[in-house]
Amino acid sequence: MAARNADEEPARMRDRPATEARILEAAQAILIAAGPGGFGVNAVAREAGVDKQLIYRYYGGLDGLLEALGVRLAQWWQEKLMAGLPQTPVENYGELIELLALQLLHIVRSEPLALQSLLWELTGSESFVKSLSASRARAYGAWMAGVRGGLEPPEDVDAPAINALLIAAISQIALAGRQADTIIGLPTNDPATWDRLEKSLLRLVRGVYARP
After folding, report:
1. Structure letter (DSSP) for residue 185
2. Which of 68, 104, 151, 200 places its Cα 20 to 30 Å from the Cα of 29?
3. Where do the H-state alpha helices sit in 9-82?
4. d(CA 174, CA 207)
5. Distance (Å, rounded) from C-alpha 165 to C-alpha 167?
6. Is 0.85 surpassed by the pTM of this model?
7. CA-to-CA distance for 211 and 92, rounded, in angstroms?
8. What three-state secondary structure class fits 187?
9. Cβ atoms of residues 201 and 195 within 8 Å
10. Cα angle 89-92-96, degrees, rounded to a multiple of 5
11. Rounded to whole angstroms, what are the CA distances from 6 to 3, 13, 20, 97, 200?
């Protein structure tokens, strides 16, 4: 009977790459819909239409699945970041950070997966948070490595600290825009607010990375 059941198993279930893709797509869908609270091996297996034992076989359990999902999300973040590159190369490091800041603001405002991932990093379990944080860090690093070339920040600027503050501010603004009607008095449902924030963001970047 076992052999006959195995023979009758759908072809897609015997195709490991396709099955892994289904599992990761299901995991991502659950995270968008339910967040960390609804995430688990059983839920992912049901969403993917697979036996949960496949998840243990392929990923070793929940932690391995989160790690694989982190890799998938890192690729997603990098693709979204690269989509905002201009046709001509930037001329200095400040322009590079302007591009990153503006594209990140656009992504977190327009992509549900991006905004949800920010929320998960605040509310998920320790392993969950580490996986998601690492995925974004890999995406930013890959973007910088592919775009930066030989551009360097001014010698007197602590670029990693400045850029971390910018990214954190953009993330917090996007989250506040989703959860509240105002951001420190600025109406979140007014397009003019986001125009002002974008212009102010550029002014901050240019002030820090102004060329001598």
Report:
1. T
2. 104
3. 11-14, 16-34, 41-48, 52-59, 62-82
4. 22
5. 6
6. no
7. 8
8. strand
9. no
10. 65
11. 5, 10, 18, 54, 61
DSSP, collapsed to helix, strand or coil, labels residue 60 as coil
pLDDT of residue 101: 92
CA angle 35, 118, 108 (to 5 degrees): 115
Computed from CA positions of residues 100, 105, 111, 114, in that sequence, does the dihedral angle turn out positive or negative?
Answer: positive
Spatial distance between the Cα atoms of 110 and 51, rounded to a whole number of angstroms? 34
Q: Mean pLDDT over residues 181-199, rounded?
A: 88
Q: Which residue has the tokens 């392929």?
A: 58
- What one-character DSSP code corresponds to residue 149? T
Structure tokens that stand for 153 in this block: 């920040």
What percentage of the chain's residues is helix, strand, coil (to nearest 5)? 75, 0, 20
DSSP state of 150: T
Kind plus residue range of the DSSP H or E element containing 186: strand 186-187
Whether 197 and 186 have beta carbons less than 8 Å apart is answered as yes
pLDDT tier at 200, thresholds 50, 70, 90 = very high
Q: What burial class does residue 58 get, using C-beta atoms within 10 Å of its C-beta: 0-12 exposed, 13-18 middle, 19+ buried?
A: middle
Sequence-ordered list of residues with C-beta below 8 angstroms from that of 134, at least 6 positions apart, any chain:
70, 74
Q: How far apart are CA 145 and CA 85, in angstroms?
A: 14
Distance (Å) of CA 65 to CA 43, 81, 99, 116, 135: 12, 24, 32, 18, 13
| Helix (H) or strand (E) segment spanning residue 142 | helix 126-147
